[in-house]
Amino acid sequence: MKRLWIIPKKAIRNSLLFLAFVSCIFLFCKPSELIDTVSAAVKKENPIYFVYTDENKISLSFDAAWGCEHTEDILNILKANEIKATFFLTNIWLEAYPEMAEKIAADGHEIAMHSVSHPHMNSLSKEEITREIEDNKALIISTTGYTPVLFRMPFGEYNNLVVTTVQELGYYPIQWSIDSLDWQENATASSIIQKVTEKLHSGAIILMHNNGSYTADALPNIITYAKEHNYQFVPIGDLIYSTPYNVDTQGGQSQD
Predict the structure, then answer these.
(1) Count of domains observed in the chain
(2) Contacts of 248 (CB under 8 A, 6+ apart)
(3) Cis link prior to 154 (omega < 30° from 0)?
(4) Which domain holds residue 211?
């Protein structure tokens, strides 16, 4: 016996409407316009992972969301090597260690935003994203006197809404091109050094953490290696281009 397939009338109607819509696009749009329309619909907004530059400049960055036992050691190493870095601070950390935040600023380092509560930003509404950023900025200013313009997404998670909201607020969304993985439980000074030095490149943004167990131990060797290869350390704000700028699909920033 032959099996009869019964297709609901609603499904047929919806299919015909979709085909009619697609046909209209092809009939009335030029090929170039069609490509632009499709591209706009699927375009992914990227934060800045690294910078295209002919100069051997790189940036050290430290995220602060928990703990403070190793922060002073890191600051002492940076001072001894006359290096300015970028510290991304959460409100969680600022409220727990305001004196250390003041010391970071007093040492001349760049202070940047890292949210109020270190949430998964992809799960938030635009209003919630805005609060996480603006309330973070307000506490940084009141604690350190520094006005931040850079924002790094917690966990490195983002979507188009997160990136565009950061930009609409007038800030720079920052990611990284080299992850030291100093936060992992099995991290060692040697593994951190290797992760950073084997991938070092001009325009790199290096991710580290203020309270990684072996971050301070690894830092001197990383600095020595970079200097021997003629790299200059600058805060991220001095590495990136100001607006207008472009960010490609790899997260590379270039001047517009």
Answers:
(1) 2
(2) 46, 254
(3) no
(4) 50-255
